[in-house]
Amino acid sequence: MEPILQIKNLTHTYGVGTPFQRSAVEDMTFDVYQGEFLGIIGHTGSGKSTLIQHLNGLLKPTSGQVLLSGKDIWAEPKKIRDVRFRVGLVFQYPEYQLFEETVYKDIAFGPINMGKTGEELDRCIRESARLVGIRDDQLEKSPFELSGGQKRRVALAGVLAMEPEVLILDEPTAGLDPAGRENLMANIRDFHRNRHTTVILVSHSMDEIAQNVDRILVLKSAHVLMSGTPAEVFARADELMTAGLDVPQVTRIAMALKARGLDINPAVYTVDALEQELLALRKGGAAC
Amino acid sequence: MLKDITLGQYFPGNTVAHKLDPRTKILLVVLYIVALFCAKSLLTYGLMALCLAVCVRISRVGVKQLVRGLKPVLVIIIFTGILNLFFTPGDRYIFEWGFLHVSDTGLRSAVFMVLRIMLLIMGTFLMTYTTSPISLTDGLERLLNGLKKLHVPVHELAMMMSIALRFIPTLIEETDKIMSAQKARGADFESGNLIQKAKALIPILVPLFISAFRRADELATAMECRCYHGGEGRTKLHVLKYQRRDYIALTAGVLVVTAVLVLRHFGL
Ligand SMILES: Nc1ncnc2c1ncn2[C@@H]1O[C@H](COP(=O)(O)OP(=O)(O)O)[C@@H](O)[C@H]1O
Ligand SMILES: [Mg+2]
Question: What is the ipTM of this complex?
Fold first, then answer.
């Protein structure tokens, strides 16, 4: 697989030269591959939001580099806007950035900044609205009349409408109810599957990450603690727990069963996988 | 970025300067300003600078931070200096060139004026650097308590001030966030003419105003839920009390002012 983003020895220090100086990202190196669904997980304050704001050039590295398709994004600072169109970033609580009179106009803000016009503009607005489940009759409403969850969908559509090559979502489900959460994640999964866009999902919920991504990057106090497929990462569940991070509920059950003497793989992270393990155990004739 | 604005920022610490009662510090600053305006000679200005240096040393505030506080008023300082330098009449001219001439009194008053403004600002900043905004308003409220008899709404003013101070950093942070979010959608705040630049602010100002009103509404509800009904009968969690160190500091302050007045009387 081709890396689309390469992060090399990235360091970011806030408040250089003041008593509040601290590094939020320190010497991080990793690749993001074309078309993958990458999850970034870590405690609040571990530097997730700081890290992702470097990937579309909103923050400039204190040291280190970010390469997009092999080219340093800061090679030509004048063209940084093009990077932002190619790498779409949806902030945490994006509903607070809505400002237009109608939903349609708000979604149009990004594509218009890109220079899209006419039918092309209309098409990408309607398509992205449909992707996140906004009905056509809602497009002419004021975004401030919508419910919290719907506002967030509008904000998400505003970034999708730019049709970025990489989509980064910073805790997209924070503050939603369980149904709204699952609904939004389903939209994002569909988007990833249909468009083959690279998606980076930032979250502090292990369950959400485990259920959706191909690869996980675990951050701890400004460093990359580990990275790998969910199976690889949850095989090191002990390490995760000593680092003060959660593991998915299913993994916790499997670990508890193993601790009580059942011969099962504790690194399972979906209900289906756990069921398979237990059924296999039963067939094997072990006491259950 | 926006965050770099130091709006009388507080640097937490544990020195005597931090522990002094906020009322003491406010009074000391008032005394300092009075003394500054009474100072007339090199000797008294030297004394004022020495006082500030001692206080800075005690408070362990970096000189760099203090000097940075001067940056926003640099233009005013330079302007005052130039005005005084060239436009003060005097009996002896040190320098003449065309219509520009510098008299000896001009030079003297320019130097003193610039020194005075710089010392005044650094002195005030030292107070805000060592006192949290909340205790500062607390101190101010207590000091102005007497005005209540004249029906001045002291408590309400203090409450408004502490709410404003509390929300300045929040709003700055929020503006930063909204700006980043709109930049991520390709907003461009730098290029274009004045009208285009003003238009580019709409995507920031609309969300900012909405969120400010939302916050105000939430705060008002929260205050009402906790039965806030103004200052009447309200007691304090941290009751301000003068300590030994406050009496010492105030005495020292009064002594310095007296010294300056005495020196002034003798024409020094
Ligand atoms: N604009 C900022 N100025 C100063 N410090 C910041 C700023 N943004 C974040 N930080 C600090 O950097 C650290 C990492 O924050 P952040 O990247 O937001 O973490 P996360 O998204 O994982 O919660 C935190 O300790 C936070 O206090
Ligand atoms: Mg965050």
Answer: 0.88
